[in-house]
Design a protein that fits this description.
This protein is mainly α.
């Protein structure tokens, strides 16, 4: 009796491009594809706006790049980080702001990255669709986890473990320390949740709201209400692209800078 090696589970997983690391599925899904695309676009955007053909008298392209740099420096880094840490952590918070902005924006651009296909003139083509990687909680949680780890690593590096963890506890009577200590530890964990859930919920809600308005066109058949769906969807779409995309990227980067800065120079 002979056994075909291609029939083994490992070979099947390899040929189907579904790599596994124990129970963890490492296959490339839609969120990963959008993150790769967002990474590439962020790098290209930074190079084009801030590195290519810089002039003494800046043109519009260079002016936009300088404005982004100034916002990242003055409104994000300098507001949250102590002066001694800006040189080290400005590249991180600036890259984080630009990356989240690009990924958020890609979520409102129809791209042929959908699993669904359609046939046209004998060709099988991917369906255009919109999808925001930041509307996936696993993506925003991973981004928040980076800030969470960097925060405590820097706090320990600058202050030492004893002084840093002691700074979590306010000056209160010793009798209520058993109540205060768990609350303070929980507040540190809540930073991780607030960072990830805020971005995830805002992006997911924006897409659901737009799709709901479009869906009303097919649900409501009574005039004039049936004609309100598409205009409302367009208004929400513009609002999300112009305001929410930018604000959420700014808030995430600003809070990351504040958390890292508060760990380096604790208040207590």
């Amino acid at each position: 009796m002979t056994t075909n090696l291609l029939d083994t589970p490992a070979a099947v997983r390899f040929l189907s491009c579904e790599p596994l690391l124990g129970p963890i599925d490492l296959s490339i899904n839609k969120a990963v594809a959008y993150l790769w695309l967002g990474t590439l676009m962020t790098i290209l955007l930074g190079i084009v706006l801030m590195r290519v053909r810089l002039r003494v008298n800046p043109d519009r392209r260079q002016t936009i790049g300088e404005q982004i740099y100034e916002i990242a420096q003055t409104q994000v880094a300098e507001q949250g980080l102590p002066s001694k840490a800006i040189g080290r952590w400005f590249p991180y918070v600036a890259s984080l702001m630009l990356f989240i902005f690009v990924v958020n924006l890609l979520g409102f651009i129809p791209l042929p990255l959908s699993d669904e296909k359609f046939h046209l003139f004998g060709l099988t083509l991917p369906t255009l669709g919109v999808y925001a990687a930041t509307s996936s909680l696993s993506v925003t949680l991973a981004l928040a986890l980076l800030t969470f780890i960097f925060t405590h690593v820097e706090g320990i590096r600058f202050n030492g473990p004893i002084r840093y963890f002691r700074s979590w506890i306010p000056e209160v009577p010793k009798a209520i320390l058993p109540l205060i200590v768990p609350i303070e530890v929980l507040s540190q964990l809540m930073r991780l949740i607030s960072l990830s859930v805020r971005l995830y919920a805002n992006m997911l809600a924006g897409h659901i709201l737009i799709l709901t308005m479009i869906g009303l066109v097919f649900i409501i058949h009574t005039a004039p209400w049936r004609f309100f769906g598409l205009p409302a969807a367009f208004i929400f779409y513009i609002f999300e692209v112009v305001i929410v995309v930018t604000i959420q990227a700014f808030i995430f980067a600003a809070l990351s800078a504040i958390y890292i800065g508060s760990a380096i120079e604790p208040e207590h």
